[in-house]
Amino acid sequence: xxxxxxxxxxxxxxxxxxxxxxxxxxxxxxxxxxxxxxxxxxxxxxxxxxxxxxxxxxxxxxxxxxxxxxxxxxxxxxxxxxxxxxxxxxxxxxxxxxxxxxxxxxxxxxxxxxxxxxxxxxxxxxxxxxxxxxxxxxxxxxxxxxxxxxxxxxxxxxxxxxxxxxxxxxxxxxxxxxxxxxxxxxxxxxxxxxxxxxxxxxxxxxxxxxxxxxxxxxxxxxxxxxxxxxxxxxxxxxxxxxxxxxxxxxxxxxxxxxxxxxxxxxxxxxxxxxxxxxxxxxxxxxxxxxxxxxxxxxxxxxxxxxxxxxxxxxxxxxxxxxxxxxxxxxxxxxxxxxxxxxxxxxxxxxxxxxxxxxxxxxxx
Length: 364
Description:
Number of strands: 0
Protein name: Zn(2)-C6 fungal-type domain-containing protein
Keywords: Nucleus
Shape: globular
Strand content: under 5%
Low-confidence stretches: 23-40, 42-72, 75-98, 100-109
Number of helices: 17
């Protein structure tokens, strides 16, 4: 009897309640997330902006980082240790795998698989307002439309949207916390593996790639702030990893910037890009800046790195105390990590008290 190659079991075997040999022997090799993630793009792209040896190793950069147990609620952080591959081959986006497992085997309408109600719940719950609360209502609505359109074409974005929805519901529904947290980790791990499998970021997938990178970064930051296990320096290490991931987004966005400005994301990209050359006007960080200038423990390069971090920190205070019309008062606070100098990240990574004091100032 000819096999119709449906996933995960062929229709013939399902109909007669027979064990499908095709499923046993081949399905694992064809699922998009069967192969382990060998390299990364977003956080690996951060290597282009962070060449300090301090970024080449981390407790979260091992292969096991993408299969962490769900008990710690930790995002499977991408490794910044390997450089991104940038070939010109267009990544495969046709016949995307859906969370239910089928990839277009039912085009003829001969039979249907049950709808995965959990994934439907997660899909209906997703909103850009959750991952980007600094956006205004009109941009959220536009962003939601773009996400839905791109997620259908790029499964890695679809999986990450479901993952961040599950993470949000794990907080909103504490009685189902463990269930949704497990869903979040599993879906995000698959999303990362599929994104790593793409061979380039080009015109065909640049919008989906930037959306994926942005949502993944916010997801990672949520996990960092929600996970209070371990000591303070463990938290600092996780924060540094999230910053490296955030800086990777800037690299990906820069590579695809011309295409993004011609895409439907143009209004969001223009709105969400802060002016890094704006001069601070407040005095919230004057004492911190004075202490950094006086410390004998930092060399001139490290002092300048701390001053740059303080510069953008003061801009964050300025935006809260005197918001720009049409802008979120907390926008710069969300993107502070993107502008941190490499040397400052290295100081944080080595647990230097001066850098930690600057980071602590953000809590005031």
